[in-house]
């Protein structure tokens, strides 16, 4: 999405603004897009909140992933005995047919 | 016991290039991989299959493992690929359990204003960062995403993959990726709002 003229910059509404807010998380906005978004958020109560909340979502998702990676070594459900056996058998067959 | 840290001297790191018993792998890493898979796919049989596929791929690729990361980190990398592949296999699914009005296509008036105002979330994001209950709420919301949105969210927001690599891995255009990320974020935001911030 790119804004090409002054009219677009001045008439950016929440739908366009929220899209830019999301885009901004993945790429640099153009000067026109940045300007349009800034102008819009000056006069809007909802979109600044939307921006903050998407930022929080990203931060928490990453932190949660970090915690997950740390926890999988120590705690949580275990493979059932049946699954464990099945997996070992499959791996054993693969390693036996390995001609290297 | 198990040398996972890359600070450990090389002699303590299991040498994967040598003919090691696959049984040992399952014993050492099976549960950890299972827990990660289950956290992402929520179904035990599927998680078991993904763990098996991961071990097979790791075994077949063991020569390529340079020992640069800990064995578990390396295998989780493989598992993550398998999980995203599984999301792609599942294809598009309806957004069950998520607020349909949070879809960007439905969330705005004809003039482009929000149909429903964005709620104010209490000003203490720091405490949420370490809040296990909040994590569980987030997990449940992410679990409700349709597979095509879950895949971009997992890659971009969680694994922090850049958009070019993401498009390559999912074989989608940048425009498509952008729309999917927008939808995923909007839906998750609203799900969090409903289930945490304004839960009755």
Plain-language structure description:
Chain A has one domain (6-75). Chain A is 70% helix and 0% strand. Chain A has helices spanning 6-10, 14-24, 31-42, 46-71, 81-96. The mean pLDDT of chain A is 91. Chain B has 200 residues and is mainly α. Chain B folds into two domains: 16-90, Rna Polymerase Sigma Factor, Chain: A (Orthogonal Bundle), CATH 1.10.1740.10; 100-197, Arc Repressor Mutant, subunit A. Chain B contains eight helices and no strands. In chain B, helix 2 packs across helix 3. The longest helix of chain B has 24 residues, at 174-197. Chain B is elongated, with a radius of gyration of 20 Å. Chains A and B meet through helix 2, helix 4 and helix 5 of A and helix 1, helix 2, helix 4, helix 5 and helix 6 of B.
Secondary structure topology:
The complex is a heterodimer of chains A (about 100) and B (about 200).
Chain A: H1 6-10, H2 14-24, H3 31-42, H4 46-71, H5 81-96
Chain B: H1 22-41, H2 44-60, H3 71-90, H4 125-129, H5 132-144, H6 147-158, H7 163-170, H8 174-197
Give a brief description.
Chain A has 100 residues and is mainly α. Helix content of chain A is 70%, strand content 0%. Chain B folds into two domains: 16-90, RNA polymerase sigma factor, region 2, helix turn helix motif (Rna Polymerase Sigma Factor, Chain: A), CATH 1.10.1740.10; 100-197, Arc Repressor Mutant, subunit A (Orthogonal Bundle).
CATH class identity of the largest domain in chain B: Mainly Alpha
CATH architecture of the largest domain in chain B: Orthogonal Bundle
- N-to-C series of helices and strands of chain A: HHHHH
**What is the number of domains of chain A?**
1
**Tally of contiguous helical segments of chain A:** 5
């Amino acid at each position: 999405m790119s804004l090409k003229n002054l009219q677009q910059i001045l008439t950016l509404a929440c739908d366009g603004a929220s899209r830019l807010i999301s885009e901004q998380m993945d790429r640099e906005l153009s000067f026109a897009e940045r300007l349009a978004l800034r102008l819009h958020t000056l006069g809007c109560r909802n979109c600044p909140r939307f921006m903050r909340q998407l930022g929080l979502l990203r931060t928490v998702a990453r932190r949660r992933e970090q915690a997950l990676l740390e926890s999988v070594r120590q705690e949580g459900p275990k493979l059932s005995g049946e699954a464990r056996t099945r997996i070992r058998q499959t791996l054993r067959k693969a390693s036996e047919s390995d001609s290297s | 016991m198990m040398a996972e840290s890359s600070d450990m001297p090389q002699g303590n790191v299991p040498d994967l290039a040598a003919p090691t018993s696959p049984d040992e792998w399952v014993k050492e890493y099976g549960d950890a991989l299972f827990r990660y898979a289950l956290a992402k796919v929520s179904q035990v049989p599927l998680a078991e299959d993904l763990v098996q596929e991961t071990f097979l791929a790791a075994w077949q690729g063991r020569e390529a493992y340079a020992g640069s990361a800990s064995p578990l980190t390396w295998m989780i990398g493989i598992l993550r690929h398998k999980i995203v592949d599984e999301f792609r296999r599942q294809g598009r699914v309806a957004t069950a359990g998520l607020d349909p009005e949070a879809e960007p296509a439905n969330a705005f008036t004809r003039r482009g204003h929000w149909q429903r105002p964005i709620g104010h979330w209490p000003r203490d994001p720091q405490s949420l960062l370490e809040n296990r209950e909040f994590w569980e709420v987030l997990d449940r919301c992410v679990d409700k995403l349709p597979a095509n949105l879950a895949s971009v969210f997992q890659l971009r927001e969680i694994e922090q993959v850049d958009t070019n690599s993401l498009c390559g891995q999912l074989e989608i255009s940048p425009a498509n990726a952008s729309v999917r990320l927008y939808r995923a974020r909007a839906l998750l935001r609203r799900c969090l709002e409903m289930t945490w911030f304004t839960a009755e």
